[in-house]
Design goal:
The complex is a heterotrimer of chains A (95), B (495) and C (507).
Chain A lengths: L4 H10 L9 H15 L23 E2 L9 H5 L5 E2 L2 E5 L4
Chain B lengths: L10 E3 L2 E14 L36 E2 H13 L7 E2 L2 E4 L9 E4 L9 E8 L2 E14 L3 E3 L6 E5 L6 E7 L6 H18 L11 E10 L9 E6 L2 H20 L8 E5 L4 E4 L1 H4 L7 E2 L6 E2 L2 H9 L5 H12 L3 H8 L2 H11 L8 H19 L10 H12 L5 H12 L7 H8 L7 H14 L1 H9 L4 H11 L6 H12 L2
Parallel strand pairs in B: 13-14
Antiparallel strand pairs in B: 1-2, 2-11, 2-12, 4-17, 5-6, 5-16, 7-8, 8-11, 9-10, 12-13, 14-15
Chain C lengths: L8 H9 L5 H14 L6 E4 L1 H16 L10 E5 L26 H8 L3 E6 L29 H8 L15 H8 L5 E6 L5 H7 L2 E4 L19 E6 L2 H11 L17 H4 L8 E5 L9 H16 L3 E5 L4 H19 L17 H12 L2 H14 L5 H23 L4 E5 L16 H5 L6 H6 L3 E8 L5 E8 L4 H15 L11
Parallel strand pairs in C: 2-3, 7-8, 7-9
Antiparallel strand pairs in C: 1-3, 4-6, 5-6, 5-10, 9-11, 10-11
Classes of the chains: A alpha+beta (95), B alpha+beta (495), C alpha/beta (507).
Chain lengths: 95, 495, 507
């Protein structure tokens, strides 16, 4: 499989990575090189094989229902580019 | 109220009848102290970003650890919905960008949910129910909140809700009218509240629904559906369905076709409208969350949770009908809230004696309910204990007070004399019913003497008796036993 | 290199304990070495004050006869680990200025045991790379001189920001490998998603171990690919690596994938006899057109172990060749999701924009380097509707097959598997940053299977190439049997003789 320019543009938008039209052909080449590299996997017989969901034989551990965290507004906001009254600020979200 | 016949549910169009097909995705906030994958509080409100851990804020390198109670709540709910409990389920990431979704993905269960198929018996009338199938129930994280109206150019992001556990309960497309959908949501809400897995507070958004609506000619295959997002009251669910069904019928009858899309219900304008932004090629790229392992538990744990489940509303209703001889209507009203049902039972059985259940039910659903409504609280919180209600019913049964006096007594007990013992209060206020024949006779005599012409009329018009009883009751301050008064009058007037 | 920086971690520990040296002296010696080696660009932040304060505290504890397993030992930390109040950016521009309000579990464990932090080490951006060339802070030079280069020639090249022609220290833990090999720290933390500990170890003639998945907590370690990432140490001897891992590893209730198994005394396994152990040699690792030097080294390794009393047998791992392509689906897929949190909203870089989608796209376009952007796009693509089954699900099925291959080999009585570490010795910076990204990916061909199967793997130096560059061998073990790897690794180390690390031409 390979991707065309429209697909590259779509993927970039899904990944929220801005790309200029000038960058598209180069990106397309690189992505297609990687896709060509993984293409051989299509020939592997995976009939009846379960996809791996976890590499360890562990069971999912569970936490008790106790409030042990939070109330650390300062720490939560410490690295924020823009805040006001305890909120994170972002440019308007168009609904 | 919807009737039992299918025909009556059809909507009339210009070109014939239409059937509306409804499926619901209910998002119910799980009752727990801490969030689904972090130790931050789930408490409602609070300063912005106060109930937020570094995990909820998706700081680099933070990892989720699941809250056992949230899993237990989902299993309890599954059991209450008579659903298949999946002893192995997995968590997937639903990827999309939004400022109130800090991780850039929502942890949800896509491929294998914790609960599979089940069903709910939905009561449409006291003695007519339909079964609505449950497709699945899964656990997922709630998002934070973006406030858009504090500034014209900026949105304010608060992550207090970010990571709170939700159950998404998906029904099968088994409903055929707005009334059925409303009844389904209220029954589901009742069940969730019974088992304590969700408080059902729709005002706080703790229970909200995405409503899938399509229309078709009776017997035809399903039509194209539209999803109305985030409807947050039972009334609006009904309005949204009717509005949307009408919209779809009009389009089809005008020769158009329905486009599958996400819509929003505007209760002010009474219309649904397309959420075009949501239509923008969403591709959520679900895949199993590699920070979590498959969620596994055994039968023993399920059995332990099952053993502590309370009696569910359907079973309780049947038992109330059988044991207390309640009508189906009374039983369904009383079991709608678990607290009410418990209150009813403890009033009926107070003091180890089983009293007149029908009388308790009447007081509960009648005067007490009216008084509670006036106060804006539930019957259980109106200020009357189950013991006092029992005593009140006993006082009437023993002939100590009349029903009329009992009504006044209730007002006192809910108002100035809150918390008083009804029996002592009757004593202290001299509210005891007069059963002394001598006293009643003299009152009767006095009334007849004062109204000779009416007494004469009564001999030929026995209907006058009621007027005389009323006069005597008035004269005795309502304390006379009405039966005794009636008997005495009949004797004196020769009826 | 002074006497103090030439010590092994174990020797330094013993001398601190006997009070022959102080932690402050030892720390100052390393800080001075770091200062002289600025040209290598191994450190992206040096925490002088913190280092000295920690060293003083260690000396006070040592004076009282107290102190943990690493008391007073100065080490370096890969920039991937969150260190409270200290530069933590995974060497990415998108985490500009990020100072975490928390400490990763692995580093917290190290400080608990008394280690002293010298600073943060350079790395490939978000650990994506095999040469440390993708770092926002520029490439790192290996302390090994390029073949036929004079010290003067190399020193001149250090001045060039691109460091062209100097040798790559491997990646992604290139700052860690360079710093350890150049004696700038006694040991360093590293991390390994596809070979990022082991390939740099091989390239710089030092020891690196990627423990079993789940052995070290991932909490507070900036995520690349969650199901593959694992912390581990780089050190100059097998014993030093064992000492480091014992402190780094351990249960952590904050990481759902972290093992609750207690951590054994790995150091005790160093020097344990390998007599009677069975070593598997997988025929599928013998690639077409394989470098004959690597092949010869591999055979020599098997011979050394046979001589030490181990039994060497052929094993088959038939799905080996699928591992690298499958890895380049799974790792980018997970990364595309893990790195979604870098959105300019709560921390790090934010590019000006008047609308949110624009903010995301500008911030992420400027904040991520070319290699990261490329992998995020591949990852996004293989998870997208219509391609998920063909790529991601298939790759995870192949992962099951790869793991099964190892399980069969171990079930047949193999104690560890011996393979080459890398297809070649270190290459020069700039040599592989060509148009085809796949060429660089091929560096991980021998190491990536281990991550795919969640197994432990150790790389030890095994000798020098004809050109005089270090070469390593890899041992792959059973899950949670790092002890056997330390025992066999020490046997290889002894047979090969400790690689003589380069003299400080850079100073």
């Amino acid at each position: 499989m390979s991707v065309d320019l429209a697909a590259v543009r779509r993927i970039a938008h899904l990944a929220r990575i801005g790309v200029t039209d000038a960058e598209l052909p180069h990106l397309q080449g690189e992505i297609n090189a990687i896709l060509a590299f993984v293409e051989a996997l299509g020939e592997v017989d995976v009939e009846g094989v379960e996809p791996m969901t976890s590499v360890t034989p562990m069971r999912l551990p569970m936490r008790e229902d106790v409030v042990t965290d939070g109330e650390i507004v300062r720490k939560v906001l410490a690295n924020a580019p823009l805040t006001e009254d305890g909120f994170f600020l972002v440019p308007t979200v168009l609904e | 109220m919807t009737t039992a016949s299918a025909g009556a549910k059809l909507l009339k169009g210009a070109t014939g009848d239409w059937e509306v097909v409804i499926g619901l995705e209910v998002h119910a906030q799980v009752t727990s102290k801490a969030k689904l994958f972090s130790g931050a509080s789930t408490e409602f409100g609070g300063e912005p970003n106060a109930h937020v851990s570094l995990v909820d804020a998706a700081m680099p390198g933070m990892l989720p650890v699941i809250n056992r109670e949230c899993v237990a709540q989902a299993v309890r709910t599954g059991l209450a919905l008579k659903a298949l409990i999946n002893k192995r389920s997995t968590f997937d990431r639903k990827n999309y960008f939004y400022p109130d979704l800090p991780q850039g993905y929502q942890i949800s269960q896509y491929k294998s949910p914790i609960v599979g198929e089940g069903e709910i018996l939905v009561d449409l009338t006291p003695d007519y129910s339909i079964k609505v199938g449950i497709e699945r129930l899964h656990l997922e994280q709630d998002a934070g909140k973006s406030v858009h109206d504090l500034s014209p150019t900026m949105s304010f992001v608060d992550l207090n809700r970010s990571g709170v556990a939700l159950m998404e309960i998906v029904s099968k497309p088994d409903m055929r009218s707005a009334d059925e959908a409303k009844a389904y949501v209220s029954k589901l809400r009742t069940i969730l509240r019974y088992i304590g897995s969700c408080d059902g507070d729709m005002e706080k958004g703790n229970l909200r629904a995405d409503v899938n609506v399509s229309v078709r000619r009776p017997g035809a295959p399903f039509g194209t559906r539209c999803e109305i997002k985030n409807v947050n009251s039972i009334r609006f669910i009904g309005q949204a369905i009717d509005t949307e069904a009408r919209r779809q019928i009009e389009i089809i009858e005008d020769g158009g076709t329905i486009k599958q899309e996400t819509r929003l219900f505007d209760p002010v304008r009474g219309e649904t409208r397309s959420m075009r932004s949501k239509e923008e090629a969403h591709d959520y790229r679900y895949f199993p969350d590699p920070d979590l392992l498959p969620l596994e538990f055994d039968d023993e744990w399920i059995d332990a949770l099952s053993a502590y489940l309370p009696e569910l509303p359907d079973v309780k209703k049947a038992r109330f009908i059988a044991d207390y001889k309640l009508s189906a209507y009374d039983a369904s009203v009383i079991v709608a809230e678990r607290e009410t049902a418990d209150f009813f039972e403890s009033a009926v059985n107070h003091g180890g004696v089983k009293r007149d259940a029908k009388a308790v039910a009447n007081w509960l659903m009648g005067d007490l309910s009216a008084q509670a409504n006036a106060q804006g609280v539930g019957v259980v919180d109106a200020g009357l204990s189950a013991a006092s209600l029992a005593t009140l019913v006993d006082l009437i049964g023993e002939g100590v007070i009349s029903g009329k006096i009992a009504k006044d007594l209730l007002v006192m007990l809910l108002g100035p004399d809150r918390g008083a013992d009804p029996r002592s209060l009757v004593e202290a206020r001299g509210l005891k019913q007069v059963t002394d024949v001598g006293a009643i006779d003299s009152a009767v005599d006095a009334v007849i003497a004062a109204n000779p012409d009416k007494a004469e009329q009564a001999k030929t018009k026995p209907g006058m008796l009621g007027w005389f009883v009323g006069q005597v009751m008035k004269a005795t301050g309502g304390k006379a036993n009405p039966q005794a008064v009636s008997d005495a009058l009949k004797a004196r007037l020769g009826l | 290199m002074t006497d103090l920086t030439s010590l092994t971690l174990a020797d330094a520990r013993d001398q601190l304990k006997s009070r022959a040296i102080s932690s402050v002296e030892l720390t100052r010696a390393h800080l001075a070495a770091i200062e002289r080696a600025r040209g290598l660009n191994a450190f992206v932040a040096v925490t002088v004050d913190k280092a000295l304060a920690m060293a003083e505290a260690s000396d006070a504890r040592l004076a009282k006869g107290e102190g943990g397993a690493l008391e007073g030992l100065p080490i370096g930390i890969k920039d991937l680990y969150a260190t409270e109040g200290v530069h933590t950016q995974a060497c990415s521009h998108i985490l500009d200025g990020f100072r975490p309000e928390y400490e990763s579990t692995v580093t917290a464990n190290l400080w608990r045991d008394g280690a002293v932090m010298l600073g943060k080490l350079n790395m490939d951006e978000f650990a994506m790379g095999s040469s440390n060339e993708t770092s926002y802070y520029g490439p790192v030079a290996s302390p090994w001189l390029p073949p036929n280069w004079s010290a003067d020639q190399a020193r001149a090249a250090l001045g060039d920001k691109g460091k062209r022609g100097l040798l790559a220290p491997g990646g992604s833990s290139g700052g860690s490998s360079s710093a350890v090999a150049a004696h700038l720290c006694l040991a360093a933390t590293a991390s390994d998603t596809g070979g990022s500990i082991r390939q740099p170890a091989a390239f710089t003639g030092i020891v690196g171990i990627k423990p079993t998945y789940g052995r070290c907590s991932r909490w507070g370690m900036v995520a690349f690919a969650s199901s593959l990432d694992q912390a581990g140490p780089l050190a100059r001897t097998v014993r030093d690596a064992a000492i480091m891992l014992r402190s780094m590893a351990g249960p952590d209730a904050k990481d759902s994938t972290c093992s609750t198994e207690p951590v054994p005394d790995y150091e005790a396994a160093v020097g344990r006899s390998v007599k009677g152990l069975t070593i598997g040699v997988p025929k599928e690792y013998r690639l077409d057109g394989m470098n004959p030097e690597i092949e010869a080294l591999w055979a020599k390794g098997a011979e050394w172990l046979r001589a030490a009393g181990a039994k060497v047998v052929d094993v088959s791992l038939p799905n080996t060749r699928h591992a690298l392509p499958a890895y380049y689906i799974v790792a980018p897929a997970e990364a595309s999701s893990n790195l979604a949190r870098y959105d300019g909203v709560r921390y790090g870089l934010r590019e000006p924009a008047s609308e949110i989608v624009d903010l995301y796209e500008k911030t992420r376009a400027r904040g991520f380097g070319a290699e990261v952007r490329r992998r995020l796009m591949i990852g996004t693509y293989v998870l997208s509707a219509g391609y998920y089954d063909a790529y991601y699900v298939r790759a995870q099925k192949i992962r099951t097959l790869i793991k099964r291959d190892f399980e069969i080999a171990f079930a047949n009585g193999v104690d560890a598997i011996l393979t080459p570490a890398t297809p070649s010795a270190a290459f020069a910076i700039g040599d592989k940053s060509s148009a085809d990204p796949v060429e660089m990916y091929l560096n991980d061909v021998f190491t990536v299977t281990v991550n795919m199967a969640g197994l432990p793997g150790i790389v030890t130096p095994a000798g020098l190439s004809a050109e005089g560059l270090p070469l390593g061998l890899q041992l792959i073990g059973r899950p949670f049997d790092e002890e056997t790897l330390f025992a066999i690794g020490a046997a290889l180390e002894q047979a090969a003789g400790r690689t003589k690390l380069p003299a400080p031409w850079w100073a």
